[in-house]
What we know:
Layout: E1 19-23, H1 29-41, E2 57-61, H2 72-75, E3 77-81, E4 88-92, H3 93-99, H4 101-112, H5 119-124, E5 126-128, H6 137-140
Parallel strand pairs: 1-2, 2-5
Antiparallel strand pairs: 3-4
Helix pairs in contact: 1-4, 3-4
Protein name: Large ribosomal subunit protein uL13
Function: This protein is one of the early assembly proteins of the 50S ribosomal subunit, although it is not seen to bind rRNA by itself. It is important during the early stages of 50S assembly.
Family: Belongs to the universal ribosomal protein uL13 family.
Amino acid sequence: MKVTLATKSSKAVNILRKWHLVDAKGKILGRLAPQISKLLQGKHKSTYASYLDSGDNVVVVNAKDIVVTGRKADQKRYTHYSGYPGGLKIYKYAELLKTNPTKIIENAVSGMLPKNKFRSDRLRRLFIYKDNNHSYNEKFGS
């Protein structure tokens, strides 16, 4: 009797994407970003394969209530360079938290994702809202 032990490889056609709702209220940014990154990559699934984008969709609510530890609220800076002379813009964390808190979480998660061809597709499946109002209620049965 011949026994064959073969692992079946995953295919892009068989990927099932679920929806995850993450509440950022009172959560620490450095602890939340890797969890979101893991969901976007699909590393929590038993069918994970590094050569496939098998991650899920993630909706983050209450981005305005994210917390950083220590003195990061005063010292943390975000930079953006346009590529032109004089095109460097520097934003403080506290300033960005008031104007666009979704950018803080997006930047943190983007830094946690691998820098490869799937990065932009994974970030497209990340939906961040600064308060509790979002348009994906039907995905969660609310």
